[in-house]
Amino acid sequence: MAERVVLAYSGGLDTSVAISWIGKETGADVVAVAIDLGQGGEDMDVVRQRALDCGAVESVVIDARDEFADEYCLPTVQTNALYMDRYPLVSAISRPLIVKHLVTAARAHGGTTVAHGCTGKGNDQVRFEVGFNTLAPDLKVLAPVRDYAWTREKAIAFAEDNQIPINVTKKSPFSIDQNVWGRAVETGFLEDLWNAPTKDVYDYTQDPTVNFTAPDELIISFDKGRPVAIDGKPVSVLEAIVELNARAGAQGVGRLDVVEDRLVGIKSREIYEAPGAMVLINAHQELEHVTLERELGRYKRQMEQRWSELVYDGLWFSPLKEALDTFVTKTQEHVTGDIRLVLHAGVVNVNGRRSGESLYDFNLATYDEGDTFDQSAAKGFVQLHGLSSKIAAKRDLGL
């Protein structure tokens, strides 16, 4: 019996070519595994059949949409995770889930090798392979696009020479990765940093001026950091993302033009669309401002960037990431309440907050009658708070 290679299959050019190439070059049978993460586009049954038509001995499609939303998108919301304070980890959080299912498929189908279609320039090769090495260090890893220096032109030529049934041309301008959490677009004319994105770059969002006269106001309800209702209607995490993708996308919310620091050491220009993600993170941050104690909130904001860096760098399964997850879960105990916001002209504006767990005390905050804050205590507090700086300044000034 031939060895089996379990391939992360997207249905696109590189992984379709990889099925045939792996068979010809290694003699191994290929099991194609496609994961439905809410990316839309082609019907997954069509994707499954294409893998078989390209020569896979088995083709598996896994509906992981709710799993992705609950176990990968939700922690990203609760951590307010934005790599470099901008990127909501659209691709980064999908890779560990794909790794998990590929390892499971390898065990179920007798695979000795797992394969992916990543290049040597990107972050995804790291995310896949570090994940494989963590969850299944006994499995071998094959990366034909990277290890054999494939180009798009070579892949198309191989497909034509070997009658591989794919519909792709050399004119396709972009490299696109998408799921329910967002959409990432790169390459083509976007590689020139001075070139502005054209309207054909976007798919999840409308031009922000299209609905300029019709802003959308809504209320998002959270229970312990988990979105549970929109405008009073109960929703699952997946349903919340889908609805907000539609509503925020119609207002042009979630368009990001980013030059980011890749793990391999180069800078890359990426266009992201993440309407639902950006709304949920904004709303969740605002609710934390109401419900988290000051020192806890300050420390959490520091660790959020570290969590984002770990996930971006492919360390989802690392001990530090696991420990930080435990911390984040603890911080969410009181993050319950409602956030009212307006989506308009590409912007999210929060204009209302309410929570039974709120730390906001009106009688302490007000400057009007009924103020319960003891202002006489402030003078001594200020003197003591700055005392060490005052002593140092007197020394430095020779006083």
CATH architecture assignment of the largest domain: Alpha-Beta Complex
CA-CA gap between termini: 88 Å
| CATH homologous superfamily grouping of the largest domain | Argininosuccinate synthetase, chain A, domain 2
Summed up, the domain count is 2
Subcellular location: Cytoplasm
Pfam family, one: Arginosuc_syn_C
Catalytic activity: L-citrulline + L-aspartate + ATP = 2-(N(omega)-L-arginino)succinate + AMP + diphosphate + H(+)
EC number: 6.3.4.5
Summary, kept brief:
With 399 residues, the chain is α/β, with parallel strands linked by helices. The protein has helices spanning 13-26, 44-53, 65-78, 94-109, 124-135, 144-147, 152-161, 237-250, 275-291, 294-312, 319-331, 362-365, 378-385, 387-396, and strands spanning 4-8, 29-36, 58-63, 113-115, 140-142, 175-179, 182-186, 216-223, 226-230, 233-234, 255-261, 267-273, 337-344, 347-354. Helix content is 41%, strand content 20%.
List the helices and strands and how they pair.
Elements: E1 4-8, H1 13-26, E2 29-36, H2 44-53, E3 58-63, H3 65-78, H4 94-109, E4 113-115, H5 124-135, E5 140-142, H6 144-147, H7 152-161, E6 175-179, E7 182-186, E8 216-223, E9 226-230, E10 233-234, H8 237-250, E11 255-261, E12 267-273, H9 275-291, H10 294-312, H11 319-331, E13 337-344, E14 347-354, H12 362-365, H13 378-385, H14 387-396
Parallel strand pairs: 1-2, 1-4, 2-3, 4-5
Antiparallel strand pairs: 6-7, 7-12, 8-9, 8-13, 9-10, 11-12, 13-14
Helix pairs in contact: 1-7, 3-9, 4-5, 8-9, 10-11
